[in-house]
Amino acid sequence: MTYQYQPVALVAAHQALATLLDGGASAARIRVFDADETHLATFMLQKPCGTVDPASGQLALLPAGPELNAPAAGVAHHAQLEAGDGEAVAVVSVQEGTAPVPGALVLSVLNIVAGGTVELVSATIG
């Protein structure tokens, strides 16, 4: 059996996720890793971390800026959402592109160069 959540359920769930991400003294962040768990980039989020679309229930996360000095080189594989208190709350897939993709973190590049700049094009949950 398959299932699909209605927008009202997604709005409640994603608003709760946003509240969890905004918890703690610091802003939430997204950390990007390669397949071997090497940390490649960090994107701090604004506070509040994003907005929930009342029609679709999607949570659009709002980055505070790009990664200006990538700590390591590698090919981005996945990203971890971390609340303002540092607690990991979700892992999301990453892909390269120029437009938002629901359910994925879209980066300007997947092949990250140490010391390079990486743009977070979009991060849409749901």
- The separation of the N and C termini measures 20 Å
Structural class: mainly beta
The number of helical segments is 1
Classify the beta-strand content into a percent band: 35-45%
Provide an overview of this structure.
There is one protein chain. With 126 residues, this protein is mainly beta. Helices cover 12% and strands 41% of the residues. The protein is built from 1 helix and 9 strands, in the order H-E-E-E-E-E-E-E-E-E. The strands form 2 sheets. Strands 1-2-3-9-7-6-5 form a 7-stranded mixed beta barrel. It has a two-stranded antiparallel sheet with strand order 4-8. A hairpin with a 6-residue loop joins strand 2 and strand 3. The radius of gyration is 14 Å and the shape is globular. It starts with 6 loop residues before the first helix and ends with a strand. The mean pLDDT is 95.
Gist?
This protein is mainly beta and 126 residues long. It contains one helix and nine strands; from the N terminus they run H-E-E-E-E-E-E-E-E-E.
